[in-house]
Each structure stands twice: as structure tokens, then as C-alpha cells.
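Amino acid chain
________________
===
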Amino acid sequence: MGSPRQYYSGTNCAFAGDIWTDTPGAILVYACIKINGEVAAYYAGGGDEWGKAVVCDSTHFADGASIAPTIEALAAFGNYAGYGNPPTPVKNRGRVFGDNTFPGGLGTAELNDVATDLAGMNITPLASDQAYKSDILGTILPVQVFFINNLYTRNFQRYRRLRRRWHRRKERRQCAG
């Protein structure tokens, strides 16, 4: 399954595995890659080796959850083999910045809307109404989604379009299996 990661985050969480039998005349009857016990890819048998890669988005799992990929196989003579990486944490973090100096508190409602939407996408929102350079630079590393609201741009409308696209993609992924 490869070497374990420190954490999983983003749209390219890849799990790959190869399995084979060295027993003369034996063939693989069944092999699969599982993620947290759920079959993500399988092989119905017929050969003496199988390899597969599975890619998923970390937002299929809650922030802070663990992912434990395994590969299992059964050969024709009843030989079973299985291997798994240790559970590895998921980091889904979104940094939301606003500006509390807007007249009438403008910006705070948008921050709350974005934070609520991110939480619904399995992303932990880290919100701040202080959008200063030091705040942004000091917190840029551990996150994968950014939203910055200010008086001179239309970031909130752009964010709404991106959110609608994300939901459409999520629906397509769920329909695809």
C-alpha cells in the first residue's frame, strides 16, 4: 500500500496496492482495496497478480477522522493475504477572513455563511474578522480552502458560484459510485 502519510488532505488522496501469488498454479480468486472497511476497488480473479490505485477527496471524511486503507486477497488454494497502513488523520481546514471595520458590521454575516457552508462540506472553518497580512501569512499552511471578504471585491458572489460547482461535483461523484 506504500508508505503511510502524516495526514490526508485535498482532492488527490491516493491509495495504491499490488498483490500476487507465488504458489505454482494458483490464481487470485478475489482481491480488493478497502478504505475504512469499505471496498473502493476489487478484482474478480483470473490472474496471478493485481494492482490498482484509488483516488478520493478528503472531504468524503470528517476533519480529524482517520483513514485506514487495506488491501486483501484470496487465492484459489485458500491462501489469504492482507495488509494495511496505520490509521492516518484527515485535515480538512478552511480559513475564512473578513474585515470587521466595514460600516454596520458588513462582512460578519458573510463570514458566518461561509463558515456554515464549509462545515457542511466536512471542512472545519477557521474564521477571523481580522484580515491583516500577518493573520493571513501566519495561518496559510494548514488549510486547503480560503475565503477573504473585503469591500472592494465580489469574493462572496464568487464563493457562492464555487460552492454551487462543488455541490454539483459532489452529486456527480455520489451518482458515479
In short: The chain is about 25% helix and 35% strand. The chain has two domains: 13-89, 93-169. The helical segments are 108-120, 133-138, 155-176.
